[in-house]
Write a structure and sequence with these properties.
The complex is a heterodimer of chains A (about 325) and B (about 800). By secondary structure, chain A is α+β, with helices and mostly antiparallel strands. Chain A is about 40% helix and about 20% strand. Chain B folds into 6 domains: about 55 residues, Phenylalanyl-tRNA Synthetase, Chain B, domain 1 (2-Layer Sandwich); about 120 residues, OB fold (Dihydrolipoamide Acetyltransferase, E2P); about 190 residues, Phenylalanyl-tRNA Synthetase, Chain B, domain 3; about 70 residues, Phenylalanyl-tRNA Synthetase, Chain B, domain 1 (2-Layer Sandwich), CATH 3.30.56; about 200 residues, Bira Bifunctional Protein, Domain 2 (BirA Bifunctional Protein, domain 2, 2-Layer Sandwich), CATH 3.30.930.10; about 90 residues, Alpha-Beta Plaits, CATH 3.30.70.380. Classes of the chains: A alpha+beta (about 325), B alpha+beta (about 800).
Chain lengths: ~325, ~800
C-alpha cells in the first residue's frame, strides 16, 4: 500500500471513530493516543516517509501534515482549548449563576401531616380516611354528644340539611372504623374538618386534624401517656417538657389535654386532646366496653405546624402566597 | 369564672403562692390563669388624685391633678366615680394598655391631659367600664400596679369544663383542693333555722305546671329589711372577683352564688303581685322587661316564674324589672330553685341570653343546694340588711332527686389507669369529694353527692380517682404491642410519591378553601352541595373543582408580583349527584396549573420560555411515567365539562383518569382575575392511587447493539404526527423499540400545505445482533404502510 492510500484509510478510520465524538474523558484520551500518540497511527504514517521516493516526498509531506492538522482540529474543536472556552461562554467565571431548574415546594401543612403520620406509623398505627360530609350520628350522636350540646348548634357547625353536616372533627371516622371492623384497632385518621367560625388570624372556617384511636383488651391511661409522650418528643424534640392535664370531652373519660412548655413564651401551649374511650361510644357501635378498652386523641395540624414553624397567622396557610410557600 | 385567693382561704388551706394554686387547679382539670395577664400592665403605676374640678368645656368630664410619685400631672377623666384622695391605676404618657392602646399626651376639649386613670376594663381585669378602679389605702403612690394587684387582690381565672358545675363557686373549688392536699374543708358558717310554727304559708305558696321542669322551688320571706350599700367586707368580696356592688340585697344573692354556687333571686314582695308563685311555660304574646331593662318577647320555649297571672322572671335566667328590689323595698321574696338543665339551656338560648345563673343551671345545679343557699341568704339578709325571717319556707319537693350508688372495682381501676393506686387513696378521694362510700378494698360502692350530677358510672369514679391521684403521677408505659395482625398500609401512600414528583418538576403545593361562592361554583355545570348556614354568601357552597381555588391563588400571586407559577392542590371536591345525603359524592382530585414563564432570560438561556400546552403535556408525561403508569392514550375532548378548553382526556385501559388543556377563559372573566393564559390538568386521585399501587417488575437489559434509522416523510399539513407514530409502532414487529419525531419542516421546497416529518427509529433485538437485512425488511414495510395510509412520500 502506498502512503496516500494509508493516509486515506487512517482518515476514514478516524471519521468512523470520531463520529459520534466520545463524551467520556478516558475514551477521548484513548482516541487521542490511538491517532496522535507517540506510537499512534499518524506517527506510523510519518514513519512511512523513509520509504517514499524523493519525487513524491513533498506531496506526501503535505498530505501528512493535512491529516495531522485535521485530526488535531477535531480534538480541539470537540474538547476545546481553555482559551476558546473563556471567550465563547465565559464559563470560567464561577460567580455566574448556575443554569436554573424549577424547584417546587411542599406545603408546610403537608409536611407537618406527613411528619405526624410517619411518627405514628413507625409505632404500628394504620391510617384511615373518611367522609367530610357525614350525618349527625357519626359526628355527634355516637360520640356521646348530648342532644343539646352547643357543638350541635348552627353557630358552631355547618349544616347541609338538619341531619347532615360538614364534620367538625375526624372522630366521625372512629365510628365508621368501629362499625366496619372488629377490634383490636389502631389507627390515625388525618383529614379536613370544618367549624362555623369567623375567619381571623387565629381561626379559619376549616382546618386539618389527625385523630388517633387504639382499642384493645388491655389499653390503659398509662399506655396512652407513653404513646403520646413518644409522639411529642419525636415531633418537638426529646427535651420537650410536657404535661397531661384533666379536661372534658363527651367521647372520652377520663379526658386530658396535652400541653408543651414554650421556653420562648414562658407558658404552656395546648397541643392535643385525648382520653380513654367513653363506654357510651363503644356501646353505640356494639363493642362491649367490659372487654374492650382504648384511648383516642385528636390534634389540629395547623396548630402544630404553626408552633413548629413559628407561623402567627393561620390564613397564610390557605392563601397560596409564593413568598410564604417558597420558604418551605 | 374568677376566684379570689383570699376568699378561697376561708374554706381551705391553700398553698402560699398564687402561681402554685393556679398550677394545682390546672392539674386538677380546672384550667387556671392567674387573674391578670400582668404582662401588659408593667407600665401602669399607682397614682393619687390630688384635686378634681369639673372640666371647663365638658359637662361629663373632670379635670384632675394626679400625683405619680414625682410630679403632679393634669389628667382629664370621664369616669363619674373619680374623686379627690383616691388611689388609682395610672397609665402615664408613653405606656401601652392591653389591646395595644398607646397613651399619648393629649388635648381634650382644650385641656392638656398627661396620662389616663384606668377602669378595670381598660386594664383587662374585668368588663367593668362604668368607672375607674379605686385602689385601697395600702396602695403606695408611684409603685407598680402589678405588684399591688398581686399583693392585694390575688385572683385566678378558671375555665370550668361543662361537666363540673360544682366548681362554679369558691366552695366547690376549695373542695377539690382539700381532697388534693388532704386538708379539711371548712363550710360557710350558717345553719338551717329551727322554727316551731311555720308562718310563711300566709305569705306565699308555690305551684307547678310541670314538676319535671322545676323539680324544686324553695321560697321564703324576709321582712323589715333596709336596702342600702353593702358593708365593706361584702363589697370587697365581690369586687375582688370583678363584680360590681349594687346594693346589700342584690349583693347577698350574688355573694351566695359565688360562695356556694347556687343562684338565688330576690323579688320585692310588695311588687310581686300575688301570694302564689306559679312556674309555667311562656305563652305566645307574653312579654317581660328584664333587669337589664330590655323588653323580651316570650314564648312556650321559656320556663317562667309568674305570680299566677303575669311573668315576673325568666326561670333560671333573669328576673323581671317590675318586681326587682329597689331602695324602697322592705320585704323580699327569696327564690332558691332547682331547674331542669336542658329546659333552662333551651330557654336562655331561645332569647340569646347567657347569665351567671343560666350558666349554672344549664350545666346542672345541686337540688340540695337550693335549700342550703336559702338558709345562707336568710342569715345574711338578717345580718347585713337587718331583716326578720318569716318562719318556714315553701318547698314543695314531691319527687326527691336521689343519686344512685355506683360500684367501683379494683380490677377495672387497675385496667383503665394502668398503674397502682392504693385502697386508702381511693376511699379518701371518693369521701373527700362528698361520696358516701361502702367497702374498703377491691370493691367500693359510692353514692355521689347531690352537687355532682356528672358522676353516674364506674368510669366517672375512675376518672375522679385518677384525676386526684394526678395525671402526672401515672407512669408512662412504653411496652405495648408494637405489631398488630391487621395492620394496613396508608391508603394515601401514593400521594407522598406524587407530591415528591411534582415538587421535582417545579410545582408548589397549595391548600385552598373548600367553601366557595355560588358565583364561582356556577362557572362549572356541576351540581353542587349547598350549606344551610354559611358564614357568608362568599362561602355558601362546597367546591366542585379545585380550579377556581388555584386560579384565585394565581391571581393573588400575580398581584403580588409573582406571575410565573406552577401550582397544584390535592383534596376533595363535592357533587350533589342525587338529592339528599346519599346523593352527595366526595371526589379526591389532584389538579395543577402553569402560568407565566417557565424560565426567563439568563446568561445561559438567551430566550425566555412561556408556559404552553406542550410544557403542560411534558409535565403530565413525566409525571405519569415516573408513576409507572404506561400505555396512556391522549384523546381530544371537545366538550370538556371540567373547565378546560382545547381539552384532552388521559385514558388508561379504556378509563379516563384525567383531563388537561387550556384553563377556560370563563373563570378569568367570571372571577374578575388579572391573570393570563394558563394551562392545567386534573386527575382523579383515587384512580391514580390504584394505578400506582403496584410493584415494578424489572425487565432485563438488552446488550445487543441498537440500530438507528431516520425516515423523512412528506405528508399533508393536516396529518397528525401521532397517527404516523402509532402506525409505525404497529408495524415495527418486535424489533422497533422507539420512534420519535425530531423535526417538522415546512418550506416552499416541500410544497404548499405540506410538511416534512423526520422521525428517528430505534431497532433492537432481544436475542441477537441485528443485521441490515433484519431492519430493512421492517423499514420497507413501514414505508409502504405509511405511504399508503397517509399519502406520504419518502424524502
Amino acid at each position: 500500500m502506498d502512503i496516500k492510500e494509508s493516509i486515506e484509510s487512517v482518515r476514514n478510520l478516524f471519521r468512523t471513530d470520531s463520529d459520534p465524538f466520545p463524551t467520556n474523558y478516558q475514551t477521548v484520551e484513548a482516541l487521542r493516543i490511538k491517532y496522535l500518540g507517540r506510537k499512534g497511527l499518524v506517527a506510523g504514517l510519518f514513519s512511512m516517509m523513509k520509504d517514499v521516493s524523493d519525487k513524491e516526498r513533498p506531496i506526501a509531506g503535505k498530505l501528512l501534515n493535512e491529516i495531522k492538522q485535521e485530526i488535531s482540529s477535531v480534538f480541539n474543536s470537540q474538547t476545546g482549548s481553555s482559551k476558546s472556552r473563556e471567550k465563547s461562554h465565559g464559563e470560567s467565571d464561577y460567580s455566574l449563576p448556575g443554569l436554573t431548574f424549577p424547584v417546587g415546594h411542599v406545603h408546610p401543612l403537608q409536611q407537618t401531616m406527613d411528619d405526624i403520620k410517619s411518627i405514628f406509623m413507625n409505632i404500628g398505627f394504620s391510617v384511615a380516611y373518611g367522609p367530610e360530609i357525614d350525618d349527625d350520628f357519626h359526628n355527634f350522636g355516637a360520640l356521646n354528644f348530648p342532644p343539646e350540646h352547643p357543638a350541635r348548634d348552627m353557630q358552631d357547625t355547618f349544616f347541609i340539611d338538619p341531619e347532615t353536616i360538614l364534620r367538625t372533627h375526624t372522630s366521625n371516622v372512629q365510628i365508621h372504623l368501629m362499625e366496619e371492623k372488629d377490634p383490636p384497632l389502631r389507627y390515625i385518621i388525618p383529614g379536613r374538618v370544618y367549624r362555623n367560625e369567623a375567619i381571623s388570624f387565629k381561626s379559619y372556617c376549616l382546618f386539618h386534624q389527625v385523630e388517633g384511636l387504639y382499642v384493645d383488651k388491655y389499653v390503659s391511661f398509662a399506655d396512652q401517656k407513653g404513646i403520646l409522650e413518644y409522639f411529642v418528643k419525636r415531633m418537638f424534640g426529646a427535651d420537650t417538657k410536657m404535661r397531661f392535664r384533666p379536661s372534658f370531652f363527651p367521647f372520652t373519660e377520663p379526658s386530658a389535654e396535652v400541653d408543651i412548655w414554650s421556653e420562648k413564651g414562658g407558658q404552656w401551649l395546648e397541643i392535643l386532646g385525648c382520653g380513654m374511650v367513653d363506654p357510651e361510644v363503644f356501646k353505640s357501635v356494639d363493642i362491649d366496653p367490659d372487654i374492650w378498652h382504648g384511648f383516642a386523641f385528636g390534634m389540629g395540624i395547623e396548630r402544630i405546624c404553626m408552633l413548629k414553624y413559628g407561623i402567627d397567622d393561620i390564613r397564610l396557610l390557605y392563601q397560596g402566597d409564593m413568598r410564604f410557600l417558597e420558604q418551605f | 369564672m374568677r376566684i379570689s385567693i383570699d376568699w378561697l382561704k376561708e374554706f381551705v388551706d391553700v398553698p402560699s403562692s398564687t402561681e402554685k394554686i393556679a398550677d394545682m387547679l390546672t392539674m386538677l382539670g380546672l384550667e387556671a390563669e392567674q387573674g391578670l395577664d400582668t404582662a401588659n400592665l408593667s407600665d401602669i403605676i399607682i397614682g393619687e388624685v390630688k384635686e378634681k374640678i369639673k372640666h371647663p368645656n365638658a359637662d361629663k368630664l373632670s379635670l384632675c391633678q394626679v400625683f405619680d410619685g414625682n410630679n403632679i400631672l393634669p389628667v382629664v377623666c370621664g369616669a363619674p366615680n373619680v374623686d379627690t384622695g383616691q388611689k388609682i391605676a395610672f397609665a402615664p404618657v408613653g405606656s401601652v394598655l392591653p389591646g395595644d392602646f398607646k397613651i399619648g399626651k393629649a388635648k381634650i376639649r382644650g385641656e392638656v391631659s398627661k396620662g389616663m386613670i384606668c377602669s378595670e376594663s381598660e386594664l383587662g381585669i374585668s368588663d367593668e367600664h362604668d368607672g375607674i378602679m379605686v385602689l385601697n389605702d395600702n396602695a403606695k403612690v408611684g409603685s407598680s400596679f402589678v405588684q399591688y394587684i398581686q399583693e392585694n387582690a390575688p385572683s385566678i381565672e378558671l375555665d370550668i369544663t361543662p361537666n363540673r358545675p360544682d366548681c362554679f363557686s369558691h366552695l366547690g373549688v376549695a373542695r377539690d383542693i382539700s381532697v388534693k392536699i388532704s386538708s379539711p374543708l371548712h363550710s360557710p358558717d350558717y345553719q338551717p333555722r329551727p322554727f316551731t310554727k311555720s308562718e310563711v304559708e300566709d305569705w306565699i305558696s308555690v305551684e307547678f305546671e310541670n314538676i319535671d321542669e322545676c323539680p324544686r322551688y324553695v321560697a321564703g320571706i324576709v321582712k323589715n329589711i333596709k336596702v342600702g350599700p353593702s358593708p365593706d367586707w361584702l363589697k370587697n368580696r365581690l369586687e375582688s372577683i370583678g363584680q360590681r356592688s349594687i346594693n346589700n340585697i342584690v349583693d347577698i344573692s350574688n355573694f351566695v352564688m359565688m360562695e356556694m354556687g347556687h343562684p338565688t333571686h330576690m323579688f320585692d314582695y310588695d311588687k310581686f303581685g300575688s301570694k302564689t308563685v306559679l312556674i309555667r311555660r311562656g305563652k305566645k304574646g307574653e312579654k317581660i322587661t328584664t333587669l337589664d331593662e330590655i323588653e323580651r318577647k316570650l314564648s312556650p320555649e321559656q320556663l317562667l316564674i309568674t305570680n299566677g297571672k303575669i311573668p315576673v322572671a325568666i326561670a333560671g335566667v333573669m328576673g323581671g324589672l317590675d318586681s326587682a328590689v329597689t331602695k324602697e323595698t322592705t320585704t323580699v321574696l327569696i327564690e332558691s330553685a332547682y331547674f331542669d338543665a336542658p329546659t333552662i339551656r333551651k330557654g336562655a338560648k331561645s332569647l340569646g341570653m347567657s347569665t351567671d345563673a343560666s350558666k349554672r343551671f344549664e350545666r346542672g345545679a345541686d337540688p340540695n343546694g337550693a335549700e342550703n343557699a336559702f338558709w345562707r341568704v336568710v342569715q345574711l339578709l338578717e345580718d347585713v340588711a337587718g331583716g326578720n325571717w318569716v318562719a318556714g319556707m315553701a318547698d314543695p319537693y314531691p319527687k326527691k332527686i336521689e343519686q344512685k350508688p355506683i360500684e367501683l372495682t379494683r380490677e377495672k381501676l387497675d385496667l383503665l389507669s394502668g398503674c397502682d393506686i392504693n385502697d386508702s387513696f381511693v376511699l379518701l378521694t371518693l369521701k373527700g369529694l362528698g361520696c358516701t362510700v361502702k367497702g374498703k378494698t377491691k370493691k367500693w360502692t359510692a353514692t355521689p353527692p347531690s352537687w355532682r350530677p356528672d358522676l353516674e358510672r364506674e368510669v366517672d369514679l375512675i376518672e375522679e380517682v385518677i384525676r386526684l391521684f394526678g395525671f402526672d403521677n401515672v407512669p408512662s408505659k412504653y411496652h405495648y404491642n408494637g405489631i398488630m395482625e391487621n395492620h394496613e398500609p396508608d391508603p394515601h401512600k401514593g400521594i407522598t410519591i406524587m407530591t415528591s414528583i411534582l415538587t421535582g418538576l417545579g410545582f408548589t403545593q397549595v391548600f385552598n378553601n373548600s367553601l366557595q361562592s355560588s358565583r364561582k361554583v356556577s362557572l362549572l355545570d356541576i351540581p353542587s352541595v349547598k350549606i344551610m348556614n354559611p358564614l357568608s354568601d362568599k362561602m355558601d357552597q362546597l367546591r366542585t373543582s379545585l380550579i377556581p381555588g388555584l386560579l384565585k391563588t394565581a391571581d393573588f400571586n400575580v398581584k403580588n408580583g409573582e406571575p410565573d407559577l406552577m401550582l397544584y392542590e390535592w383534596g376533595n371536591v363535592f357533587e350533589q349527584e342525587n338529592p339528599g345525603m346519599a346523593g352527595i359524592v366526595e371526589k379526591l382530585q389532584l389538579t395543577g396549573m402553569i402560568h407565566g414563564l417557565l424560565h426567563g432570560e439568563s446568561v445561559h438561556r438567551k430566550k425566555k420560555r412561556s408556559a404552553s400546552f406542550f410544557a403542560l403535556k411534558g409535565v403530565i408525561e413525566s409525571f405519569l411515567s415516573r408513576l409507572q403508569i404506561q400505555n396512556i392514550l391522549i384523546k381530544p375532548d371537545k366538550d370538556n365539562d371540567y373547565g378546560f378548553q382545547n381539552a384532552f382526556s388521559v385514558v388508561v385501559k379504556g378509563n379516563i383518569i384525567g383531563y388537561f388543556g387550556d384553563i377556560s377563559h370563563q373563570f378569568v372573566s367570571g372571577m374578575n382575575l388579572d391573570i393570563g393564559q394558563s394551562f392545567g390538568f386534573q386527575f382523579d386521585l383515587n384512580t391514580l392511587l390504584v394505578l400506582t399501587d403496584k410493584t415494578v417488575k424489572y425487565i432485563p437489559i438488552v446488550n445487543y447493539p441498537a440500530v438507528e434509522r431516520d425516515l423523512n416523510f412528506l405528508v399533508k399539513e393536516n396529518t397528525i404526527v401521532g397517527d404516523i407514530v402509532s402506525t409505525i409502532q404497529k408495524n415495527g414487529k418486535s424489533i422497533l423499540k422507539k420512534v420519535e419525531p425530531y423535526n417538522i419542516f415546512r418550506d416552499e421546497s416541500v410544497g404548499e400545505n405540506k410538511k416534512a416529518v423526520a422521525l428517528k427509529l430505534r431497532f433492537q433485538s432481544d436475542s441477537k445482533t441485528l443485521e441490515d437485512k433484519d431492519v430493512n425488511s421492517v423499514i420497507n414495510e413501514i414505508i409502504r404502510v405509511v405511504s399508503k395510509n397517509f399519502s406520504a412520500k419518502l424524502r
